[in-house]
Amino acid sequence: MASGPFKKILIANRGEIALRIICACKDLGIPTVAVYSEADRNSLPVRFADQAICIGPAKSARSYLDIPSIISAAEITNVDAIHPGYGFLSENANFADVCRESGIKFIGPKPEVIAAMGIKERARAIMKDYGVPILPGSDGVLSSPEEAVETANRIGYPVILKASAGGGGRGMRVANSAEEVPHLLMQAQQEAGAAFSSADVYLEKFIGAPRHIEFQVLADEHGNVEILGERECSIQRRHQKLLEESPSPVLRAEVRERVSETLRQAIRAIGYSNAGTVEFLMDEKGDLYFIEVNARIQVEHPVTEAVTGIDLVKAQIRIAAGETLPEILGGPVVRSGHAIECRINAENPDTFTPSPGRITGLNLPGGVGIRVDTHAFQDGVIPPYYDSLVAKLIAHGKDRSEAIARMKRALDLFVVEGIHTSIPLHKRILNDPDFVEGNFDTNFIKRWF
Ligand code: MV4
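Above: the input record for the complex with MV4. Below: its predicted structure, written as tokens.
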């Protein structure tokens, strides 16, 4: 081992992922510090961490996104590492850099790598260089409407204009003809400039009904890389994933192997370390095309944990402590069975609008093949200030049909009273003949309405 485990870890997050990280630290025998906003004073991470510090008011900008507050909390409690979870500061290269300057280990990739992956058009160019398949598109950022029209004419319509600093669908425009390109380019640039740090826009061939398939990566600081298979994430609405599964019901083994081997080399070459996700779109032919890298642990990581038996959060911490992947994994990665995750959100099932409030009644399912990751508890409150995730329900079985049966059973026994949740929506998805057949793409939910 290059260096020992950490003495104490601060968790710069809230909700279920904060609790998930506390659990990993307990398994490793590492004490924890929870930071919390005034809205989360009575939360489970505060209760179950060894120490807890209030870092500010409910609004994220003044608490979970407030770098000086979090660094002060880390210094006061004398931690030697910070786990950022997902969202908030997890892909903020500046935060990772401030941690480094403060002598605190940021549990994630190096700041330079986070920054490079955050510029989508750069990540695209880097992946292309290492032989990862990308869609036909512009060579970097578009510098004029004329260049945009020329490029679009060359690759053929429809094309999609994307914000280089984007993600989550903002700053995207689809053009169906040359006449539309200059106007849509201006719109995309304007939207990107307002929403992100940069108004840069690039262009690529548009796939109208893609599947969203992503690969889980684990890489240490010594050049060892493992690709832990894929997750199928096509069941989403307005860029919010609802249900994820592994393996994908449609990915051909030959494509999985080819992409995994190329990715392994690319991830090593760019100096990526820690857990990460590489997102792809699949076209009608079943071919994969790189779209972006997520340099963090993701919400849906338990699906991969179920099929590999690997604790990804524990692995992140051990990687950050300088351990090698062979030490951490202790042998070859074996994937077995099928896993599905349903995201249980506090939302109105008809309007999909948030439904925060007090949980007046709660029954969590369990039994063979079921895992629940949640910060919910009887009489606990889901505040309105953050995302509406209440729980993640994960079912694992020997095959897809057993995983579906277990998930349906668990949803039947899952009771949340006092707030609306997406439980009815998940029951509907699992009973849809097209879902059961594996016959769906990212427009699956949209087609219902
Ligand atoms: C695309 C695409 C079609 N063609 N790129 C949406 C979020 C951003 N991360 C990438 N996105 C897309 N990029 C090309 N060339 C369609 C989408 C897209 C999408 C992708 C994954 C999951 C859900 C989606 C919903 C709408 C659009």
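Notes for the reader.
The pocket of MV4 is lined by residues 135, 160, 167, 169, 204-207, 210, 212, 236, 239, 281, 291-292, 442 (CB under 6 Å).
The chain is about 35% helix and 25% strand.
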